Amino acid sequence: PRIHYHDFIVQSTPVKRLCNTHSSITVNGQFPGPTLEVNNGDTLVVKVVNRARYNVTIHWHGIRQIRTGWADGPEFVTQCPIRPGGSYKYRFTVQGQEGTLWWHAHSSWLRATVYGALIIHPKEGNSYPFPKPKRQTPLLLGEWWDANPIDVIREATRTGGAPNVSDAYTINGQPGDLYNCSSKETVIVPVDSGETNLLRVINSALNQQLFFSIANHKMTVVGADASYVKPFTTNTLMLGPGQTTDVLITGDQIPARYYIAARAYASAQNAPFDNTTTTAILEYKSAPCPAKGASIRPVLPSLPAFNDTATATAFSTSFRSPGKVEVPKEIDESLFFTVGLGLNRCPSGAMSSTCQAPNGTRFTASMNNVSFVLPSSFSLLEAHHQGIPGVFTTDFPAAPPVKFDYTGNVSSSLWQPTRGTKVYRLEYGSKVQVVLQGTSIVTAENHPIHLHGYDFYVIAEGFGNFNPETDTSKFNLDDPPLRNTVSLPLKGWAVIRFVADNPGVWIMHCHLDVHISWGLAMAFLVDNGVGELESLEHAPEDLPLC
Ligand code: C2O
């Protein structure tokens, strides 16, 4: 195994998109940021130096961080932010994961431009469980605002309303040639006739689930969230923010140029969204050059309609592990969490006149009716590790305070979550099941739910209210997929299982940043086990303080 050293300089950089230049926060002046490549088993040491004017942290999305919770990155959860002028060295080892992950800022909305791919090749000396691809291309799907994204969310939180939707989707930072002033920079993905390419597709968009297709080419899905899956073939992918999908494509079409395209899967009722399409171009290297002056448009793939829940669901339920896996059977902790939006009365005073949700309220979101509030004086992990009282409470409820028709017409008395910094405590090694139940409070919405520090098995999902009597028959305990982010079906539920074998404090949240801003999160506190190998490591000396 090797140790890879990197410097990440977080800085403000002029970035031109959609005919305008903005001073954007980048890593090393690059947007998207640098791609990190390692082998399973390697160690990464990344020194992050903050030369920007905002606080920042970096999260290594999907890395299990076994015993190294101090390197996980969410601000005020596992560390205090790196202040302007400060620095912090993240150090962690990749243990058992292979495939595609990514890294991103985990402070406010900085991840809009602060993100990059993290590629994990097989352990040295091992090969892929599929034919070795000729080429590999990371494709980061993103969103672009013709504004400063931090201003966009600040304004929304100030007014209590919904933030502006983005002005473009992007592939590797580029909107593509269907947008103004963007055609020259459209991303080209090369392919040779007859060769197989591995595309590593990452949804790094802030607030949007996305459909993804390539004209005339089928994709064979071979991995997701840095785990291999039983291969299956599809025309369309759907990724929630946070999710990654590895696909093989073969150059088996007439040598030419074909569009690679992504656009929203926005099934939320009445919620505004960006309805544009971002493109890149799959280009056969042997394609004849277009005659001078002739503009030959590549073929566009047909993408599903924005509200095509059937296609989205068919895709997300196609995932299986490559073979039989060890799913925890006897459950120690059976949890039921509602996941959804809510409304709060605006505080009296100056702000009340600007509360822009319906009837003078402001938007909020919650799990089990608790809207998550980050601490500010210590991170949760420090408070736990050093026994500092008063930072959080351990009374996050195992079930919703009241039972109701979660996906039906919900009474307005349930629209007002309480705010709190509550964690759910797990004994080391306990076997955990969580039913994640979407709600129709305010409106039914998509929720890609991401758990830090763990991969989990998604053993079932469905529409409507989870029924503990009948829905257990749908549990797949043989070969369910291992994920770090599950897209809850719209007006539906998903059941996940994992073994709490990684001590620390781990946030679980909706990966739509607007929902985190509204409080759609909770955290698990996992105790140390016996002995050093079951305990959190000591805090690094340069851990930033609040
Ligand atoms: Cu990819 Cu908590 O995030």
UniProtKB/TrEMBL annotation:
Report the cofactors.
Cu cation
Give the CC-aspect GO terms: apoplast
| Subcellular locations according to the entry | Secreted, Extracellular space, Apoplast
What Pfam family does this protein match (any one)? Cu-oxidase_3
List GO molecular-function terms, semicolon-separated: copper ion binding; hydroquinone:oxygen oxidoreductase activity
PROSITE patterns found in the cross-reference section: MULTICOPPER_OXIDASE1, MULTICOPPER_OXIDASE2
| Keyword NADP annotated | no
Domain of life, per the record?
Eukaryota
Q: Which GO terms describe its biological process?
A: lignin catabolic process
E.C. no: 1.10.3.2
* The protein's role, per its UniProt record: Lignin degradation and detoxification of lignin-derived products.
Q: What is the designated name of this protein?
A: Laccase
| Organism the protein comes from | Daucus carota subsp. sativus (Carrot)
